[in-house]
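quick one before i forget lol
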Amino acid sequence: MAHLLRVVGSEATVLERTSMVDVSLSETQHLEGWIKAHPEVIDDSLKVVTTQFGSWASLTGVAHERPDVLALSTSGEIVVIELKRAGDRRVHLQALTYGALAAGFSKELLAQAHSAWLAKEHGESVSVEEALDRLTTHVESEWTEDLFRLPRLVLVAESFPAQVLTTVQWLSSVAPDLTIECHEYQVFRDVDRLYASFQQLYPVDTLEDRQLRPVLSSGTAEVRERVVTNRRRTKSVTIIAEAEAIPEGARLTLELETLVKPAVITQVRDWLDGDFDRNNVTWTNHPTRPLAWAADASHTWTPSALRNEIFARAGVTPHSFSAADAWCYEGENLYVIASRVVEDGEDL
């Protein structure tokens, strides 16, 4: 059981554990609201695409399934998040059904869903084309629709019955291409305030995504390998920052050869060369936003965000190649540097 302390200097008081039922909080209004506002409590790579999506149809009829949250990860996966106010013995069965449905999305349909959700949820008028641009910009690696074949399933509950955890572990062993996670939250009370904590219960956080894997023999092996590679690329910054593999303040360069067409390289390079500050990008040991840019020092940037900003200012349309392959330190890109850090760690 997790404990939460209220700390005042050297003194600490244990906060009272409570439940959503006891404090009259609902699954849809409250728990879903927390995740919509802060998807980073599940994974800081997630962007919410839509909630309570219910438009499923075939030639023979329609279905009325409504996954709680559909999100997109920076690795290009669709993420199905199923929420429960308390324990539910069938939550994994629902998630499997929703995952099968979500695997039928195309980029166009995903953009339509996102556009409609932004209008309904935020009153924001966004065209399908602009919604697609936003989703494309969020992905830090090459984004193709074959990645949709393996949606990532995330179960979120206050507790998980033993049969759910047993089934999830069994599924992970017999269907290794499938990613299914259990995240547990807890609610605490302190006088007139409530607090919530979230933690991943299964699988236990390991170095799995940083390790080389054998090629699987199933029909989805190639897709799985691309997903794993994309995840490694999105983790490159965190790996480098934790290992301090690039010195603080070191200069980085944007190397686009082999990643985009020569005409694009020329256009971006001409714009960068138009002002010294545009080429002045330095490294900071931040786990997600490590790039400082002299041309806009108001904040630090993720590799993909700065790539997108430079492309936009240079008048170039967005591209979805991995930013970890483009930003380089002393001739090596971030993905290569991160891979070497992992390999060195495995040799210890």
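fyi The first strand starts at residue 5 and ends at 8.
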